[in-house]
């Protein structure tokens, strides 16, 4: 189901970090790490618009989690990052950009200074084992061009 109801995920369960992680695990079962996903993949979303590559992956997962009609807030409050948020990160110094979905606010291998994420178009495939360091968001060339898209 991809219907929207305030306070609930698309599967009808309340919006909690635990329930989001449960749904993400189900998505990972159907589209495991290594599944092909590259620039040719496109997705049309009411909230995100027409997107492609890594943004298409993020938008599709977000719509599947929260429902296609779920409202969205775009912000740059990196201390308010939540599991299930889509991050569109751009480094204005080198032009690199990438979209990913937060899967955990800590990383089991690197610790609490790192978040865990999943993404598409990471080397032409899906990855459920991506990570990043929170301090990256503090860099001026990243902070100015990076946005969080939250559905709750």
Question: Major sheet, described briefly?
Answer: 6 strands, antiparallel
| Alpha-carbon distance between the two ends | 18 Å
Low-confidence stretches: none
Give the overall shape. Answer: globular
Radius of gyration: 14 Å
**pLDDT averaged residue by residue:** 95
Helix content range: 10-25%
- The number of strands is 8
Strand and helix order: HEEHEEEEEHE
Q: Decide which structural class fits the backbone.
A: alpha+beta
β content, as a range?
A: 25-35%
Tally of DSSP helical segments: 3
Please give the order of strands in the largest beta sheet: 3-8-4-5-6-7
Describe the protein's architecture and organization:
The structure is a single chain. The chain has three helices and eight strands. It is of the alpha+beta class. The strands form two sheets. Strands 3-8-4-5-6-7 form a six-stranded antiparallel β-sheet. It is globular, with a radius of gyration of 14 Å. The two termini are 18 Å apart.
Q: What brief labels describe this structure?
A:
alpha+beta, 6-stranded antiparallel sheet, globular, 152 residues
Outline:
With about 150 residues, the protein is of the alpha+beta class. About 20% of the residues lie in helices and about 25% in strands. Strands 3-8-4-5-6-7 form a six-stranded antiparallel sheet.
Task: Reconstruct the topology from this structure.
Blueprint: H1 17-30, E1 42-45, E2 49-52, H2 53-66, E3 73-75, E4 86-90, E5 97-104, E6 114-119, E7 127-133, H3 140-143, E8 147-150
Antiparallel strand pairs: 1-2, 3-8, 4-5, 4-8, 5-6, 6-7
């Amino acid at each position: 189901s991809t219907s929207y109801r305030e306070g609930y995920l698309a599967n009808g369960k309340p919006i909690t970090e635990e329930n989001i992680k449960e749904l993400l695990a189900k998505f990972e079962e159907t589209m495991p790490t290594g599944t092909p996903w590259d620039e040719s993949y496109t997705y049309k979303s009411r909230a995100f618009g027409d997107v492609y590559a890594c943004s298409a992956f993020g938008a599709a997962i977000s719509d599947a989690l929260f429902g296609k009609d779920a409202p969205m807030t775009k912000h740059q409050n990196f201390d308010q990052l939540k599991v299930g948020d889509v991050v569109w990160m751009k480094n204005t110094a080198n032009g690199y950009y990438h979209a990913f979905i937060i899967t955990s606010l800590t990383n089991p291998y690197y610790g609490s200074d790192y978040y865990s994420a999943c993404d598409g178009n990471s080397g032409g495939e899906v990855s459920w084992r991506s990570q990043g360091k929170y301090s990256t968001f503090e860099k001026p060339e990243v902070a100015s061009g990076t946005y969080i898209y939250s559905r709750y």
